[in-house]
Amino acid sequence: MFEPFSLAAPAKINLALHVLGRRADGYHELDSIVAFASVGDRLTFTPASAFDVTAEGPFAAALPAASGNIITRAYAAAQGIASGRGKSLPPVAVHLVKNLPVASGIGGGSSNAAAALRGFLKVAGIEELDDHIMDVALQLGADVPVCLFGKPCRMRGVGERIEALAPFTRRRALLVNPLIEVSTPAVFGQLGLERGQSLGKAIADVTDPACWRNDLALPAIGVAPVIGDVLGVLEKLPGVSRCFMSGSGATCVALLDDDVETSFLQQGWWSVLTTIG
Length: 277
Description:
Oligomer: single chain
CATH topology of the largest domain: Ribosomal Protein S5, domain 2
């Protein structure tokens, strides 16, 4: 038996997302700067007679059924890890408060999976992360390992090569999503790379945002043109030092000068002020 506890599942922000090319195995080779926002979802873990997942919050209705939820997959993965180490994972009831839009380019599902995996392993008495756990996380999704890492970092490969970035300056930011779900495979499909085809160069300087880009922005705008509208609005706001799309969209990010007070309201769009880093 364990005492109930909660874990945050913060939004993942791609400050840079360079697509280097498409590998022979079909996966895309990436080079990305990742940091995490102060806004996100929240998972609560409670002892139960049987495993269960419930959800509430503004975006709970958009989640798949519990049987197909990534949290359920994380529970099965944690059971396998625990069993391999001579430990057991008792039934757990997970309650998710879903604050982040679904399929929005800020890693909501991946962050949920990472928090769930961390919580389940804690229940099983496994506190330290290791290479095997990170490998299992990668099987849940390409962004799950970086969400499990949970600190500003450079992420390369398909998401398995993670290097901490320190020091990292925290920044105030505005996140805006037009409430359009964007399919990651559709965006990569719009990119149109053949197997073995190269695209862009790696990040030249992890400390210089001037050389950072998101190679998925134009393909995402091709899938959902409203993303271009969001970026156009953000560029005109006072005190914005840089704006860009995160991940494969549709969430866009405006980094704000520290001394600027910014409010934003667009009917039909989701927005939140937060801190990244």
